[in-house]
Amino acid sequence: MPKQRAGLVCDHRILPGAVEGVMDDMWTRVGSHLIARVSGPMKFRFVLQPLMASVFAIRSGLADAKTAKPPYCWGLLWERGHRADMLKDGWKSVGKIFILAVLLDIVYQIIVLRFVYPGETVIVAFLLAIVPYLLIRGPVNRLARRKKPTTTPPAKKPRLDNAA
């Protein structure tokens, strides 16, 4: 028997297909909003932010090569002991770009959509800042190692001259 609340009938049943319809509508909205960002106002950030993330990834990848650290994504996946340090180092490098991507997307949404969708903001910021960083830092490390050996030459032993 359905419950009565303030003159309304509430039977707590979800109609078949209702959830799927809502989810389909949400993903359609997200997809159309993401595609519209590419040609809408503030489209410069789709070049600028990945470029900035790439610069920081190259800088970090070269530093990793000098200190003989494993490639970044590989290290995150397989080096459990160093994972927390690697995440801190990566966030230190790309965190400001991520925050900037979030803020710029919020401004875009307020101007164009007149509403802020937090999920879309996180998706856009992740795609513009984190993905380029992850894709570039490891290969730069490997290329830099290939070009320049990371081992130092052995130290020269002092010569012992008897005729001194």
Brief write-up:
The chain has 164 residues and is mainly alpha-helical. It has helices spanning 18-39, 45-66, 72-78, 83-112, 118-147, and strands at 3-5, 8-10. It has a domain at 50-146.
Describe the protein's architecture and organization.
Helix content is 68%, strand content 4%. It is mostly helical and 164 residues long. The chain has a two-stranded antiparallel ribbon. Helix 2 packs antiparallel against helix 4 (83-112).
Using brief descriptors, characterize the structure shown.
164 residues, mainly alpha, 68% helix, 4% strand, elongated
Helix content: 55-70%
Helix/strand structural class: mainly alpha
* Silhouette: elongated
The major beta sheet can be summarized as: 2 strands, antiparallel
Percent strand: under 5%
First-residue to last-residue Cα separation: 109 Å
The Cα radius of gyration reads 26 Å
Element order, helices and strands? EEHHHHH
Write the layout of secondary structure elements.
Elements: E1 3-5, E2 8-10, H1 18-39, H2 45-66, H3 72-78, H4 83-112, H5 118-147
Helix pairs in contact: 2-4, 2-5, 3-4, 4-5
